[in-house]
TrEMBL record:
One of its GO terms (cellular component) is plasma membrane. GO terms for molecular function: ATP binding; ATP hydrolysis activity; transmembrane transporter activity. It comes from Roseinatronobacter thiooxidans. SUPFAM superfamilies: P-loop containing nucleoside triphosphate hydrolases. The keyword ATP-binding applies. This is Putative ABC transport system ATP-binding protein.
Length: 222
């Protein structure tokens, strides 16, 4: 089953210097349980593609399916509902809620998605090495610990599709590798598809498949 299908996505931006063509008829399919690394030079459109897949940004043309659901046929409310229920987002900035404990941050998204399950969150926290940190607040955690909370918060809501934009970009290499391994392991176990934007060929090599954005189109990774 396809978790994400993009058909002929085209996107340009109006800027002070004129029109910037970013994506030119990009198509991509991601199976449930599969991980795909998206690489490309800075400015090649990786984040734009990920935002379009999440329904956070609208393409100029093309269609987006998350599972069987057509994002392009939905309004803002429908896209927000689908994102809450099916899509997990992880960014380079951890975006934790500073006033909530680790435990409350971990359960936050699942509650929004109507899938609160304390047992599952506790188990996930153990797997992520956060079991002893549940009562702490984000500012009392290291970068790697904060990113593990962000990953746990995303996975606790059991998304079918995880979209991650440079999730280990703020971490040192060893911590980054560790965090990515956990992400790959946990998403594969959950049967979730993972689209990982990364600059690192080394991290990309750990995914099931790779795609490279160049001049607005997808190519084989170099
Ligand atoms: N809201 C916007 N308005 C105008 N131009 C934009 C906007 N968002 C992105 N762009 C431009 O679109 C292009 C692609 O940006 P994007 O952030 O998708 O690239 P990226 O591959 O993710 O880059 P990086 O690896 O540096 O994060 C860039 O030229 C950027 O300047």
């Amino acid at each position: 089953m396809k978790a994400l299908t993009l058909y002929d996505i085209t996107k340009s931006f109006e800027t002070a210097e004129g029109r910037v063509e970013v994506l030119n008829a990009v198509s991509l399919g991601l199976e449930a349980g599969q991980s795909l690394a998206l690489t490309g030079e800075s400015g090649s459109g990786k984040s734009t593609l990920l935002h379009i897949a999440a329904g956070l940004e609208q393409p100029d043309a093309g269609r987006i399916f998350v599972g069987p659901e057509d994002l392009t046929a939905m309004g803002d409310a429908g896209r927000a509902r689908l994102r809450r229920g099916q899509v997990g987002l992880i960014f380079q900035q951890f975006n934790l809620i500073p006033s909530l404990s680790v435990a409350a941050n971990l359960g936050f998204q699942a509650r929004l998605a109507g899938k609160a399950d304390d047992g599952f969150v506790t188990d996930l926290a153990q797997r992520l090495g956060l079991g002893g940190l549940m009562q702490r607040y984000p500012e009392q955690l290291s970068g790697g610990q904060q990113q593990r909370v962000a990953i746990g918060r995303c996975l606790a809501a059991r998304p079918a599709l995880v979209l991650a934009d440079e999730p280990t970009g703020n971490l040192d290499e060893a911590t980054g590798d560790q965090v990515l391994d956990l992400m790959l392991q946990l998403t594969a176990e959950a049967g979730a598809a993972l689209l990982l934007v990364t600059h690192s060929p080394r991290l990309a090599a750990r995914c099931d498949a790779r795609a490279h954005l160049r001049a607005g189109q997808l190519a084989e990774a170099p």
